Amino acid sequence: MPKPIQSYTAKEIQVLEGLEPVRKRPGMFIGSTDTRGLHECLREIVDNSVDESFAGVAKNVWVWIAKDGTVTVRDDGRGIPVDKHKTGVSALEITMTKLHAGGKFGGGAYKVSGGLHGVGASVVNALSSYFRVVILRDNKAYFQEYQKGKVKAPVKTASQEQIDKWLPSQWNLKVSGSETGTITTFQPDKDVFEATQFDSQKIKTLLKDRAYLIPGLSFHFYDEGSGEEAHYYFEGGIKSLVSHTNRGKDAVSEVIYVSKEEGDISAEAAIQYTDTYNENVKGYVNGINTTDGGTHLTGFRIALTRAISDYAKKVGVSEKLPGGNGLSGDDMKEGLTAVVYVKMPSESLQFESQTKAKLNNPEVQGFVQSAVKEGLDTYFEEHPNDARSIIDKVFLAARARLAARAAKEAVLRKGALEGSSLPGTLADCQSRDPENSELYIVEGESAGGSAKQGRDRHFQAILPLGGKILNTERAHLDKIVKFEELKNLIIALGAGVGDIIDYNKIRYHRIIIMTDADVDGEHIKTLLLTFFFRHMPEVITRGYLYVALPPLYRVQSGKDVNFVYSDEEKDAVVKEKGNGKITLQRYKGLGEMNPEQLWETTMDPKVRILKQVNIEDAEESDRIFTTLMGEEVAPRKKFIQTHAKMATLDI
């Protein structure tokens, strides 16, 4: 035990000055120090430029990734003031070096903005090894440089030579020109972040979302290293965003658009149902994507449920569900794509944290609920064919939900009657601690037998699959729980599925897909990934799902044995062995390995290679699963033809 600290006096009280709290606890301000936190920094700077558009002045935002990894964000707004603040230093320095300082606290500079606490730019400054702001205003260029949040020198006037050195030549900026705006350049601190390499795809997704939300604002992206370039400009707003999201899917209805404005707050929603089984609902507030939802999405869901239920009763459809059951909110989710967008004064915003992932304003729930309910009631009256198509879709989901519930109850009852809720095919581990337990989902009885013999029984459980499983992209939940292999998997995991799922009851915190390194193995792996993505997505977002990487070859030279995982690695090993006698074995399947080999290559935590499955872009992942695993052949054929040369057997 650590020795108790006897002294606790005023000397032990620390006061963190300036931006020190940010460097001490970066996660409090940007959520994490991994790639998500890294891109959160960029979002903070981009949204400052977007706020200039909300103020009615900016028409363009540029994002430039330099070869050295620095990022520059520019807008053509008013430019941050550089005159002296009442504190004695420039307004620019105050904004960039003090927490809770800025023009978004009701002073009149911004009516609507994504900023709330005045900490965005200053937090990024604190977490950057280098940070520079160039201000274009008054026909001059001003600048100030910082390092880890500390000012290197007072605000100065930039020369044309400096501007040409610092900024892309394509911009052709002139010091004495009439252009205005703010240009921020920063290099994330390697001492803070786990990785400092920005992802072009994530940046493009961020900019494209903003372009949809703010019609008339153009976004320009450049990656100097790869030469990649992208430009985004949309006039259709969130209706276009919903249409873009649903490309390649069969629509049940047109995109329904509703809006309402009252005083300083406005709400709009775009809604469309498709023939798919999954939901995609996004919420935004002042241009910020509230990834964890909030009161605006709560109000939307209540209104959607009531509007559809009321219209169903009105046209006499509501009596068709068995057992007198009514519609539920879950029935409205199947095939739903929606965007809910709220704009309101920045000083009124209440977010759960600085990362603005969840809106907490209670008054917004009622406002959005009223706007969506009124808008849908009107639309259903004016478009009865669309309304009826939506109701048919929702009632189909409701009947499937009731059938799935009955099937699940039957599965659970059967398990209880047999005396054990665990399937007989499962070779469970001895540990009952989920954090220390792992489940291998193995292809075939042969590989399952080797895995059961070669495993460490203390913490490794084995569940063999008897061949290919059901494609859950095309199946309702009632069919899924009746399918023997999936039923066994669901029971083995212990969390349930559908509306009774509880991820806190999951029995293993490492769920490892282990299939053969051939086409059939890749297909089974894809079917399992489809199941988890569609029906147990939090297994992925919690970081529980992995893919094992078994070796492709066994290379033996004398008593020296090497297991290699690619053709390139095999060629390198063979070349290294020289002219000696070499025995080369190509593993066509896991069943060809004996238990000792399977342990040594694929199951021993000290040497195995596991790849963790992540969802980096939920919308793009949804589109790809729909394309590859859905019923439409033409989009799948086009995708395969386009990406065939990029395909590998390695996930």
TrEMBL record:
Its cofactor is Mg(2+). GO terms for biological process: DNA topological change. InterPro entries: DNA_gyrase_B_C, HATPase_C_sf, HATPase_dom, Ribosomal_Su5_D2-typ_SF, Ribsml_uS5_D2-typ_fold_subgr, Topo_IIA, Topo_IIA-like_dom_sf, Topo_IIA_B. It comes from the Bacteria. Coiled coil: none annotated. It holds the Pfam family DNA_gyraseB. Keywords: ATP-binding, DNA-binding, Isomerase, Magnesium, Metal-binding, Nucleotide-binding, Topoisomerase. Signal peptide: none annotated. Residues 437-551 form the Toprim domain. Its EC number is 5.6.2.2. It catalyses: ATP-dependent breakage, passage and rejoining of double-stranded DNA. One of its GO terms (molecular function) is DNA topoisomerase type II (double strand cut, ATP-hydrolyzing) activity. NCBIfam families: PRK05644.1. PANTHER family: DNA GYRASE SUBUNIT B, MITOCHONDRIAL, DNA GYRASE/TOPOISOMERASE SUBUNIT B. Belongs to the type II topoisomerase GyrB family. This is DNA topoisomerase (ATP-hydrolyzing). It comes from Candidatus Woesebacteria bacterium GW2011_GWA1_39_8.
